[in-house]
Design goal:
about 120 residues
Length: about 120
Amino acid sequence: QVQLVESGGGLVQAGGSLRLSCASSGRTFRSYGMGWFRQAPGKEREFVAAIGWSAGRTYYADSVKGRFTISRDNAKNTGYLQMNSLKPEDTAVYYCAASVRVVVTTTPQGYDYWGQGTQVTVSS
């Protein structure tokens, strides 16, 4: 079993930055891909970013490309999402997820383990 715990969310003004962390315990962190998703009130969960197990490949939603950076530190069993130039439309609960699949996926169905989420609120 894999446990994921997000942290780093909060309230920030538009144009500001936040760094989310996703701490993993249980199964070896380095053996699975990791993704970040978000869900705003009344909307479906949407893909934000993903990174392969070796951190060699990254994927981003068009809405965050150039502003967000996904990374991971396998030695610390932790993944990160650096969010810069935040906009009010980035407001959502952000979830990290882990996938045991070899190929990184951008759909929620491709992930096997989920954290509890952390709230990010961007004020205008």
